[in-house]
Design a protein that fits this description.
The structure is a single chain. This protein is an alpha/beta fold and about 425 residues long. The protein folds into two domains: about 15-225 and about 350-415, Crotonobetainyl-coa:carnitine coa-transferase, domain 1 (Rossmann fold), CATH 3.40.50.10540; about 250-340, formyl-coa transferase, domain 3 (2-Layer Sandwich). The protein is built from 18 helices and twelve strands. It has helices at about 25-35, 60-65, 70-75, 90-100, 120-125, 155-160, 185-205, 215-225, 225-235, 270-280, 280-285, 290-295, 300-310, 315-325, 335-340, 340-345, 390-395, 400-410, and strands spanning about 15-20, 40-45, 80-85, 105, 130-135, 210-215, 250-255, 260-265, 330, 350-355, 360-365, 415. The chain has a seven-stranded mixed sheet with strand order 6-5-4-1-2-3-12, sandwiched between helices. The chain has a three-stranded antiparallel sheet with strand order 7-8-9. It is elongated, with a radius of gyration of 25 Å.
């Protein structure tokens, strides 16, 4: 028997991915694959993915089974089988699943951890030579190119710091801040699926799979590429400049009397539109603001003038004028604003899913940004309970009811109480 793929409309329908990920970077990657139609089988330990311990929760039932906001957002559309991989019988189940799948993805501090469970790349490759085996870790592994810090644990903020991203994020006074979203995880996860899909194309043409090493630090250095070329060309390390841009002005956040907006004015046609929208003689006539070079040189004075204009208006009033003149401007939205935003709603970027199977309470999570004309990507189902699909998956592998019961009784396989 064989694992059945979910009948989904996405372009990756038919693709089978075995998911050993936890926390954020890996689950974010497999979330995107599942949104795109892949059948993602998440293998969880008996205690579940650690993110099940993170809220917020809708109710006690959700908290008891680990269906908090974090887990529900990044693990939707997946199947869950819970295995105690310390046990040989559970390892055998995982190997049978790996034999069935096109790709395997994990995000431990080092992929060498998988050797303890007889699930390392060389073991899997021996019986599934087409497997695309993706390892996400903080510093990578020395399997392909050297890594001085293989196995060192890390978190998003460490990667923002070590890659230089944090060094240019902060106030002009020099105080540094991490970027709000966990980009060390989300961008690394995105790099991982780009690499996986490229390798799957190669495997389809050649029949040869491969090992892929994705390091969070490498990914974040690529994300921060601007500071690399700036230093290479000037010999000067860029520093935080607040919401400004090092090469353009105006380009910043400006306060209104009830919030804030951001705006920019490059190339010059957008400066002309901004001048027309604000209708201030000083912007039209003052020589300090005639060219992009002089505007950059005099950005302190320019920002004061612009904020004098925005500060006399509400966010809505300022945006109405700026939009009318097709300026480069946008409101600074809070999370609550997104729920009332017609564009976000029309683009299906807030979707409703079921909470706990007992309560049936609905909750909204982020939608998918992938829009296809022929192969719709979408949110099909809520995140699973830990081990919710264990029995179904074992049945598809050909295990009898008695054998499944024994695996559960012996603690190899865990199923939730619903």
């Amino acid at each position: 028997m064989a694992i059945k793929t979910e009948q989904r409309s996405g372009p990756l329908n038919g693709l089978k991915v075995l998911d050993f990920t936890r926390a954020y970077a890996g689950p974010y990657a497999t979330m995107m694959l599942a949104d795109l139609g892949a059948t993602v089988i998440k293998i969880e330990p008996p205690e579940g993915d650690p993110t099940r311990q993170l809220g917020p929760y809708l109710n006690k039932e959700d908290k008891d089974c680990g269906l908090g906001g974090f887990n529900s957002s990044v693990n939707r559309n997946k199947k869950s089988i819970s295995l105690d991989l310390k046990k040989p019988e559970a390892q055998k189940v995982a190997q049978e699943l790996a034999k069935e799948c096109d790709a395997l993805i994990l995000n431990f501090s080092t992929p060498k951890i998988m050797s303890k469970y007889n699930l390392d790349y060389d073991t899997i490759k021996a019986f599934n030579p087409k497997i695309v085996y993706v390892s996400i870790s903080g510093y990578g592994t020395s399997r392909i190119v050297p890594s001085l810090y293989e196995g060192k644990p890390t978190i998003d903020m460490m990667m923002q710091a070590e890659s230089g991203t944090l060094s240019i994020t902060g106030s002009p006074s020099g105080e540094m801040y991490k970027v709000g979203p966990g980009i060390g995880d989300t961008y690394t996860g995105t790099c991982a699926i780009v690499a996986m899909l490229a390798a799957l194309l190669h495997a389809k043409e050649t029949g040869v799979g491969q090992f892929i090493d994705i390091a969070m630090l490498d990914s974040m250095v690529m994300l921060s590429e601007r500071i690399i070329y700036q230093y290479a060309y000037t010999g000067v390390s860029p520093k935080p400049i607040g919401n400004r841009h090092p090469l353009q002005s105006p380009y910043s956040l400006y306060h209104t009397n009830d919030g804030a907006i951001v705006l920019a004015a490059f190339p010059d046609r957008y400066w002309d539109r901004l001048v027309e929208a604000m209708n201030l003689d000083i912007l039209r006539n003052d020589s300090r603001f005639k060219t992009k070079e002089t505007r950059l040189q005099n950005q302190d004075e320019l920002d004061k003038i612009i904020e004098g204009w925005t500060g006399a208006r509400s966010k809505a009033e300022a945006m109405e004028i700026l939009d009318k003149h097709e300026c480069l401007a946008a409101p600074v939205n809070m999370a609550g604003d997104l729920f009332a935003n017609e564009q976000i709603t029309k683009r299906e970027m807030l979707v409703e899913v079921e909470g706990h199977p007992k309560t049936k309470q609905k909750v909204k999570i982020t939608g998918t940004p992938f829009k296809f004309s022929e192969t719709e990507a979408k949110i099909y189902q809520r995140a699973p309970l830990n081990g919710e699909d264990s029995v179904e998956i074992l049945g598809q592998l050909g295990y009898s009811g008695d054998k499944i019961d024994k695996l559960i009784k012996d603690g190899n396989v865990i199923v939730p109480e619903i």
